[in-house]
Amino acid sequence: MNYRKTALGCALAIGAPYGAQAADAVVVAEPEPIGYVRVCDTYGAGFYYLPGTETCLRVGGYIRYEIGVGDLFGADRDDDGRGDTYFKRARAALKIDARSETELGTLRRYMHINFQHDIDSDGGHEAMEIESAIIELGGLRIGVNDSLFITFVNYAGYVSKDDVIGYGPFATPQIAYTYKNENGFTAAVSLETGYDPFVVDSYMPHVVAGLSYAQSWGAVALVAAYDSVSEEWSGKLRLDATFSDTVSAFAMAGLKSDDSAPYSQFYGIWGGRWAVWGGATIKASDKASVNFQLSYDEDENFAAVANVAYQVVPDLMVTPEIGFYDNFAVDGADMIGGFVRMEASF
């Protein structure tokens, strides 16, 4: 028998009651109060204060799945740009918005990153893209964001395929300033870098400027841009009208200095010298909205797109869409396609 083990066992047995009494006598410290997250309602819903700071943060995004089919929306495109098989895309978007107040105004840090997987006749293709990464202080904005040429006039309509007739470029490095007053007037200017093949190649940047006026009836906005690479200019005028709580519409016209084919310059990417867009949104019920858009340019490109955006449950939207395209100057150029988007936001 191991003497040490026997002696230790006896000592533990004898001392057990006293050990329990000693444990009962230990004073446990009071738990510290739980630091609950404080809601920040200064900048809208979803913001909360970062613990120990006066910075408000909102984390959001969406999970999206899209299926396209037909000439206009499908994959496996031929030399004429036609698609005859399914195209599918899964996207996870992450948006982070941090804001705080300073003596120079609101300091905002915002990013929008897309992670996506495209599936077509060639297989799967994975990609990550920075849609937006900006710093804002007061009215000053620096970073990568969609061009002021399209954001200032609020893109086009509320259909997914709103750029069959292109209305301008998207993400580009920029330095921009926006001024707003209480009467509804807004003025903005942006110095932009562009992207291939219109990346700025000298000390002269692309320049965009806009003016707008908004009231309860709607809004009117004018934006103009100069492409320092092609040395061409473009402009757009947009009118929005709110007829009732259920019906709204828009009309937009674009004009550029050259009359060449689409994508001959960075901003006016439609065909010919001019183009027009128009559409409407009709709220059919608390859960469903009907949207349609028509567009046409001087090169006789025509597009019509319509959809129904249906909210299945809160934060889950399903949008079936159909589109038609034709170039009236070319025989057999017409295309049609179908599309459905399922998007769950958070």
Automatic annotation (TrEMBL):
Keyword Transmembrane helix set for record: no
Presence of keyword Ion transport: yes
Compartment(s) where it occurs, according to its Swiss-Prot or TrEMBL record: Cell outer membrane
Extent of the signal sequence: 1-22
InterPro entries: Porin_alphabac
Keywords recorded for this protein, A-Z: Cell outer membrane, Ion transport, Membrane, Porin, Signal, Transmembrane, Transmembrane beta strand, Transport
Membrane topology: Multi-pass membrane protein
Record family assignment: Belongs to the alphaproteobacteria porin family.
Function: Forms passive diffusion pores that allow small molecular weight hydrophilic materials across the outer membrane.
Record's comment describing the protein's domains: Consists of 16-stranded beta-barrel sheets, with large surface-exposed loops, that form a transmembrane pore at the center of each barrel. The pore is partially ocluded by a peptide loop that folds into the pore lumen.
Protein known as: Porin
